Amino acid sequence: MSAVPGICLHNATLLAGYAQMDRCAVYIEDGRIADVFSERRYQKKTFHPSVKQIDVHGSFVAPGFIDTHIHGFAGYGTEDKSVEAILAMSVELGRFGVTSFCPTIYPMTVADMEASITACVDAMGHERGARIAGVHLEGPFISPQRLGVQNPAHIKAVDMELMERLHAVARGNICNMTVAPELKGMRELALFCISHNIVLQAGHTNATYENMLEGMQAGILHSTHFFNAMSRLHHRDPGAVGAILIHPELSCEIIADGKHVHPDLIRLLMRDKPQDKVVLVTDALKPTEQHACILYANNEEVEFVDGLFQRKSDGVIAGSALTMIRGVQNLVEWGVPLQQAVKFASANPAKIMQLGKRGQLVPGHEADIVVFNQSFDIQAVLRAGCFIRNELAE
After folding, report:
1. Is-contact 94 389, C-beta < 8 A?
2. Using CA atoms, how far apart are residues 72 and 80, in angstroms rounded to an integer?
3. How far is Cα 6 from Cα 319, in angstroms, rounded to an integer?
4. Taking a C-beta distance cutoff of 8 angstroms, is the pair 231, 208 a contact?
5. Strands 317-320 and 308-311
6. Distance between CA atoms of residues 43 and 25, nearest Å
7. Under DSSP, is residue 220 helix (H, G, I), strand (E, B) or coil?
8. Contact criterion met (CB below 8 Å) for 133 and 173
9. Domain extents for the chain?
10. Whole-prediction pTM value?
11. pLDDT tens for residues 194-232?
12. Under CATH, which number does the domain 6-62+359-390 receive?
């Protein structure tokens, strides 16, 4: 990253995280948004000679993307259990407009989960690209009936001693955790997580509608890759899908690759779900944007087939090859307003994951910014006012 004393991005179409504003300027100082003003006012301002003034020629200036569910990227993954892999993910994600992410850990042996968590936590503070917001544990307390590609050997009943052990290994840096609300002992787990600021997500769950309501009462108010690996909507039991559609309090992840969820179902969700309750994620795997002959995810060989990864041994969907910028573009192509799609990728995850002053371009917030043009080509990325990527002419 390269830092400068001050930066002013002007002649921009601003997607501020709450509204779209044309012909605006953003002034960045000391890693934060110092001011936002019109292009007309910019023309009248006098800046110190050290301030870099950059004309973005009408491109979109938006909050940096926050991916709260991602296993790997560009040939690096949490299954590598190494600081070097996590830091390499940080660099590569930064090039694609991501300024914060939650490295997501599969259910593995306890020793491997601990090693993976340790690698993520040890990498925090050393990132040169996207920063690590905290660890996302996708399991191990999930349903054996809704595994998806997860290894059944590593799925566990709720175990508070293990949860406390994982929390200790993470040194308080577990940000979010996917659980099955119907499991015995879930209320005790939920209360522990709430007291330690861990956001609980219903996912890989075979919950009945009543199980989902009980989970909500215990504080499980977010959900993992909506529609995927969860109990289906039925007229006698709305299940997990129905509960998420029915209750506006429940927020949800969406994988907007057009493969995990049909675009028309996302249109249905947009109609029924409050705008601030939808979070765009990639659920991307290690081989995403990796150019190699043989691809692996979670130590199993996968193939890229019809826009996503499938396990080679049996053809089961292994995960997504989505990037956040492509997800935003897809949503727009399916009729979601651009400002709303960007909100799903920035302001909403920042709010739901309690990430403080991120996700909006307003004075006082951290200067995490992505600049992209009408073709959704990324032109620049800044994290805390420092360039991760810069293809803009100064």
Report:
1. yes
2. 9
3. 40
4. yes
5. antiparallel
6. 10
7. coil
8. no
9. 6-62+359-390, 65-352
10. 0.96
11. 999 999 999 999 999 999 999 999 999 999 999 999 999
12. 2.30.40.10
